[in-house]
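User: what does the whole thing look like in 3D?
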Amino acid sequence: MKIKRLTELSLLTGLALIIFVVELRFPDIIPVPGVKLGLANIITVYTVYKYRAVETFLLVLARILLGALFASSFSALIYSLSGAVCCLAGMLLLRRIIPLRWMWLCSIIGAILHNTGQIVVATAAVRSFAVLAYYPILIISGCIAGAFTGICAQLVINKISEK
Amino acid sequence: MTKGVKICLAAVITIFAISAITAWIIVTPKKGKTPQYVEIVQENKILYRIDLVKEKNHTFRIEYPDGGWNDITIENSRIFVSDADCPDKTCVESGELRNEHFPIICLPHKLVIRFSEQGVQNENKTTD
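Assistant: Here's the predicted 3D structure for the full assembly of 291 residues, as structure tokens:
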């Protein structure tokens, strides 16, 4: 059972990385730092509902570290990490309250928390509140992206449970 | 729909509405003349104060100890980042500085370009 679990998690990490690398090729929709679809989070949301908290955390950590390596963007690593920690903490708590049918809602809140974590770190890094001007735009884009990834993850779970 | 879901849904809708209104306010530029003075700030230290009206058209490079750089261009009283060595080039794609609430930000280089109320004039007065 343990090895089966490990294999599943590695497979999911690999999948998330592939999605992440493919998304890197997408052109920026709006030139605001931090605005992106975050398609790899389909896997994150799926894992939040299907696996234990520690397992989810390790999967996301592996994806972020390897993703930074593949994208060679280590300066952005701190923003991804801070966002992911906030997002995961929130979603792992919310999965007790929000049932599977409302997964997309959990994903939206995760996205909002992700952007909040990022903006806090960005404000601290730049040491200027000017960054906060981007916050409302990040939240709006986060809600849309979060709803999209959440719905995708929900479709995946429905498909798998059908079989 | 459980009570928890209802609360979360209400919270998300509220946050989304507030953000939409705030974003609208931030993005809409103030009526009247565009501000004249620009500050280029890095880690809360003001590197340059520029009077856009008096400044000639030129491009200059800001370099950092870690080897990174941003090319900043001033052209016909407008300012924008024309090139940078960061991978995402978000600061370049942001285009020119249009709005006093919405600065140009280069996160990898911790650089902020924004309009300022009081600019070079005050400084000149103290030195005159």
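In plain terms: The mean pLDDT of chain A is 90. Chain A touches chain B through 35 residues (CB under 8 Å).
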